[in-house]
Design goal:
mainly alpha
Length: 204
């Protein structure tokens, strides 16, 4: 019963996202189609996707929606490349923030000899949560703060980012073949949900 209160804000958030889309989905799709028909739009969209996903470590952006939309508009290969580049840059920024800001805080609060060290479980969590909003950013920053070895971090992050990029690009490209934005939205909600469920399963 203790978990029930968490369902209320989660349900409100879900409805706040899906109801406007259901009400104005056709208008949104029309405006996006008009903009994306412009010849220069592809390169601009790719750069914006990379930039937004890189800054997602700092800003509350709908990264899953951005990644799925990239696959829908840019196609599988270009979409996967743009998403992968943006996610990798975001991982690098998060790791750097952890090392520069998080590590000094841990040293002051816990002492130099009592610092938590990155272990195998944290590496698994870093990979498993990459598609989970907020938690993925926290895991990335924590990896830097706990001094996870750079080669381990980059191996895990590259694997996770590649998997996420390919998944979203494939789902987005499939959505483009159906000529509806609904599949993009479904991917942006479904993939984080599945990733969260797998992460909880791994933690047991």
């Amino acid at each position: 019963m203790a978990r029930v209160p968490y369902l209320v804000p989660a349900s409100i958030l879900f409805l706040a996202i899906i109801l406007p889309f259901m009400a104005f989905g056709d208008a949104i799709e029309l405006r996006l189609t008009t903009f994306f028909a412009q010849p220069q739009a592809h390169a601009l969209v790719a750069m914006v996707v990379v930039l937004l996903l890189a800054l997602d470590i700092l800003l509350p952006l709908p990264s899953s929606l951005i990644a799925a939309a990239a696959g829908a508009y840019l196609g599988f290969w270009a979409g996967a490349g743009a998403v992968f580049a943006g996610l990798l840059m975001g991982s690098a920024l998060g790791y750097w923030i952890g090392r520069v800001a998080g590590l000094p805080i841990l040293r002051r609060t816990q002492g130099a000899h009592d610092l938590p060290r990155a272990g195998r479980g944290q590496v698994v969590a870093l990979v498993a949560t990459r598609a989970v909003p907020v938690l993925s950013e926290a895991m990335t920053i924590t990896a830097g703060a706990t001094e996870m070895r750079p080669q381990v971090f980059w191996a895990a992050s590259t694997l996770a980012n590649f998997g996420v990029a390919v998944t979203y690009a494939a789902l987005g490209a499939f959505a483009a073949t159906t000529n509806t934005f609904l599949w993009v939205f479904a991917a942006s909600v479904g993939v984080p949900g599945v990733a969260w469920a797998l992460y909880r399963l791994i933690r047991r």
